[in-house]
Design goal:
The complex is a heterodimer of chains A (295) and B (305). Chain A is mainly alpha-helical and 295 residues long. Chain A has helices at residues 5-36, 43-61, 68-88, 97-118, 143-165, 167-177, 179-184, 189-215, 223-237, 242-263, 268-282, 289-293; strands at residues 123-124, 133-136, 139-142, 217-218. Chain A has one domain (5-293): Orthogonal Bundle (ABC transporter involved in vitamin B12 uptake, BtuC), CATH 1.10.3470. Chain B has 13 helices and two strands; from the N terminus they run ααααββααααααααα. The relative contact order of chain B is 0.18. The chains are: A mainly alpha (295), B mainly alpha (305).
Chain lengths: 295, 305
């Protein structure tokens, strides 16, 4: 296989642009982890399910394609809230295994439901800016991916504003640091956690729609890879670190693209997953884990 | 009869998977790598009997040792960090193993026939049992002999100090550490033991079905593996066995007419059990109640005599 620096830089550009979707999913995982110190493994599945409901509402109600990008995130938020009540709300606080296991159950429930409803076949998703393609010197940039990236930045900015500039964000951060103390200060922790799950769900819904739009199809096969990569982004960024999730999202996207170029599509994911083990050995707390946890 | 033996075969193999997860769950760690170890055991022992014409027992032993070795390797980095990290690391590990075998093509000529793993086409012709005149009843016998040995070993483990150490780590890591228990060592030992059990299960599975491919070793199977001990409860190995019989015998086989909905029901069942009985169906209280009832019954019997 021959490739020069142009190929490498080109695939880096593609990877970083695509990585914005991983960054969004990682951000959602991290928000939920930050709030409850528990993993919601059904999170990526709920994002894909949101994108599916957006897509299906188009065919059922005959809506314009753009509506998928509004209904999808809303449905994802709703699913996120349901997941909170079904898998987390009534679990004993000290028990980490039970909610984790319940969310795995929910992951398969959602996955099987999608497979059942769509007979397992992929559905085409409306593309955004299908013909836009820019040239920057020798390098090509896909217009839709650029839009995806821009949109992700806006979403991240909104999440940051919500967390650091509003009362809701203050409550979320307080609950994440000391749930009992937060409760004593009069913060309704269950309502705050519900809000976090809805926020993360909406974020995931956008990520699901953007992913489907840039891949062109929506398929149940997207769920598990998105789950695993979202988790890897979360771990590499440092569990609970928002900055880390964003940076790691772009980094994982870029790494994935390079592995695709060097080793081909069948082996790409092996190396992405090995990257996680590299981090576990060399930097178990992730890129920003320790600093954020002390916040 | 063949059908019944087939179910017994499945239940036996899944019990081994469940027991391998059980051992690690005693230390409070949830691992989805069991399916990776299972795959390693299946492929390694299959390659040994098919390509190198090894004896089945030697192949099973080496397959499970290899699985244990990889469990040790994965356990070290993954268990040093927080428990939740282990879930992420083990999912990735299982996927790495699956993708490795998805890409593995190792075709060799044995007695004029080309055999061996053929990447996406899967690994066919693992015919040791048929070639050596084993009947299905013998295969089922072998599987259940292994299941019984493993169950007895795990039961015995609970009667000696090692079991107490495992449970101490699972109940309260901080307290266990303060009483001088090396957390990492205990967890890695449990992980390695689980790997060995899953590996031998994988070897038995590969030889009893004669065919494996990467579709067999998806995360869903890992979820089954951890759900047996969690649904059955961690008080005793019997819980795991009962959960396997319930899920494989009733939900997967008994509800065959429900078709695709069975996996949906499985997902729902996990959520329900976790909400109603976070300690599993056969939790400490229930076990204590059953013990009391049993002792009452035996005492009653003595009074009568």
């Amino acid at each position: 296989m021959n490739f020069d620096h142009i190929d490498i830089i080109q695939s880096l550009i593609d990877g970083v642009l695509f990585g914005s979707i991983y960054a969004l999913i990682g951000l959602g995982f991290t928000l939920i982890f930050g709030a409850m110190h528990k993993l919601n493994l059904a999170y990526a599945a709920s994002s894909i399910a949101g994108a599916y409901s957006g897509l299906m509402s188009l065919t059922i109600f005959g809506l314009p394609p753009l509506m998928a990008f509004i209904i999808g995130p809303i449905m994802s938020g709703v699913i996120g809230l349901i997941l909170y009540f079904v898998c987390f709300r009534f679990m004993p606080r000290g028990n980490h295994l039970a909610p984790l296991m319940a969310s795995i159950g929910a992951l398969f429930f959602i996955d099987e439901l999608i497979i059942h409803e769509t007979s397992g076949s992929p559905m085409s998703f409306p593309a955004i800016l299908p013909d836009a393609y820019f040239f920057l010197g020798e390098f090509g940039i896909r217009g839709d991916l650029l839009l995806v990236m821009g949109f992700s930045f806006i979403l991240m900015a909104i999440v940051m504003l919500l967390l650091y500039r509003t009362k809701l964000g203050l409550g979320t951060r307080a609950t994440s640091q000391q749930p009992v103390a937060a409760l004593l200060c009069g913060i309704p922790i269950h309502r705050t956690n519900s809000a976090t799950f809805i926020l993360a769900g909406v974020l995931g819904g956008f990520a699901g729609c953007l992913l489907a739009a840039s891949v062109g199809v929506l398929s149940p096969l997207l769920t598990l890879p998105l789950t695993v990569k979202g988790l890897i982004v979360t771990v590499i960024g440092g569990l609970g670190s928002i900055r880390g999730a964003i940076v790691a999202g772009f980094a994982v996207g870029a790494a994935e693209s390079i592995f695709l170029l060097v080793r081909g599509v069948n082996e790409r994911d092996i190396y992405v997953f090995l990257l996680l083990f590299l981090f576990l050995v060399l930097r178990p707390n992730g890129l920003f884990g320790t600093t954020i946890n002390r916040d | 009869m063949t059908y019944l033996l087939g179910i017994l075969q499945t239940i036996g193999v899944h019990t081994l998977l469940g027991l391998s997860a059980y051992l690690l769950l005693l230390t409070g760690q949830l691992s989805l790598a069991q399916v990776g170890f299972f795959a390693i055991g299946a492929y390694v022992s299959g390659i040994l009997t098919v390509i190198f014409s090894w004896n089945i027992f030697a192949a099973l032993a080496l397959g499970s040792l290899m699985a244990g070795f990889f469990a040790f390797l994965v356990g070290f980095p993954a268990l040093r960090v927080k428990g939740l990290m282990l879930v992420v690391a083990t999912i990735s590990f299982s996927e790495i193993v699956r993708l490795f075998f998805f890409n593995l093509s190792w075709r060799v000529n044995v007695n004029g026939v080309e055999v061996g793993p053929d990447s996406t086409q899967g690994f066919r012709e693992i015919r040791y049992f048929a070639a050596n005149g084993w009947e299905q009843i013998h295969i089922v016998g072998l599987i259940w002999f292994v299941v019984m040995v493993v169950m007895l070993a795990l039961w015995w483990l609970d009667q000696v100090r090692a079991g107490a150490v495992l449970r101490a780590v699972g109940t309260d890591e901080l307290a266990a550490q303060s009483s001088g228990i090396n957390l990492t060592m205990v967890k890695v030992a449990a992980m390695t033991g689980g790997g060995v059990i899953a590996g031998i299960g994988g070897g038995l599975f590969a030889h009893s079905t004669t065919y494996v491919d990467h579709h067999t070793f998806v995360i869903l199977l890992a979820t089954f593996a951890v759900s047996y001990p969690i649904i059955g409860g961690l008080r005793s190995v019997i819980g795991t066995l009962l959960a396997v019989i319930f899920i494989q015998g009733f939900i997967i086989e008994g509800l065959r007419f429900m078709g695709d909905y069975r996996n949906l029901i499985f997902g729902l069942l996990i959520i329900l059990v976790m909400n109603m009985r976070p300690q599993g169906l056969l939790d400490g209280h229930l076990v204590a109640d059953i013990r009391k009832l049993l002792s009452k019954l035996t005492k009653g019997g003595k009074a009568d005599a």
